[in-house]
Amino acid sequence: MHENFSLKSFNTFGVDANARYFTEVNSVEELIKTLKRSNSQTFPLLFLGGGSNILLTRDFDGLAIQLHLKGISEEIINENEVLVTAKAGENWHELVLFCLNKNYGGLENLSLIPGNVGTSPMQNIGAYGTEIKDVFANCKVLNLETLEIENFNLEQCRFGYRDSIFKQEGKGKYVILEVTFRLTRKNHLIKTEYGAIKTELEILGIENPTIQDISKAVINIRQSKLPDPKVIGNAGSFFKNPTIPLLKFEDLKQKFSTIQGYPNGNSVKVPAGWLIEQCGWKGKQIGNVASHQLQSLVIINATGNATGKEIFDFSAMIIDSVKEKFGIELEREVNIV
Ligand code: EPU
Known about the structure:
- The protein is α+β, with helices and mostly antiparallel strands and 337 residues long.
- The protein has 8 helices and 20 strands.
- The strands form 6 sheets. Strands 6-7-12-10-11 form a 5-stranded antiparallel β-sheet. It has a 4-stranded mixed β-sheet with strand order 1-2-5-3, with helices on one face.
- Uridine-diphosphate-2(N-acetylglucosaminyl) butyric acid binds next to β13 and α7.
């Protein structure tokens, strides 16, 4: 156990905040032992995965636990399907590569998403036409109250857009230990409907893409516009794309003819990146913090010296100006600690 431990290398924003106590656990048994010990001290707990979706706005006055649970296993179901199980501490993209190497289909559109497997169900990670709910079989979690291991199936996770039970009524109650995905061994479902993928495949001169080609296209797209957290601190999209009533969208369309939207029944999902750009934030820097010049939805630690509070205040300014111009309240996607 470390005391007053810097979490700078444990969050992809690269924010230098301290945890009062820090420890790493390498097995579920170790985790349970640590929790039993700390329970008696009633400390707040912070579970760290890949650190790619948190913003530390202050020092953490409790025990931060890095989940270093490793291992990937597979179970062939039949000639078409395989179940792949990865422990929480596996790097997400390493899992995608493992599956591509074995020619298991389903995760390729989710290539290069930063973070670890354990946090992927929390916000139902998604990109380029796929969300993990599309391939999710189940996950094992530790109930923090009973310290019993429980199983959550697809339905129980109540996945929504960047949402799950683990962000709602299950928040703070469970630690995800491992996740199982149902993947294809042949006749893969090739998903190219997301516009940028088609364009990228054309550039690559690929007509009948394999899952490996899709992954390559996604990697190219991501690298062309999303900053690499190893180089510039960031946590991917900082806000969710807001969903607004169709009537409101039609109203806005009158005023802002270039507004884009993806209708879904009586509501429309609007790209937050567009709204933020229209408010003049794209590429804008204040102090140590900026909105990324190629994707304004991504807030970056531009100098490497930003505090979490500065990043939070910057995001509040964006929320205010989008609210003022469009009457839409952006919601943060990143977990604020
Ligand atoms: N746009 C702008 N200006 C910007 C950014 C975007 O006008 O500064 C417009 C684009 O032109 C495009 C639309 O907004 O027409 C959507 O942009 P993009 O394709 O980049 O996707 P996004 O909606 O901004 C979402 C996810 C990303 C994911 C991409 C691709 C959310 C909050 N974000 O971004 O996820 O990679 O789609 O599927 O849903 C993440 O969650 O961390 C993340 C990176």
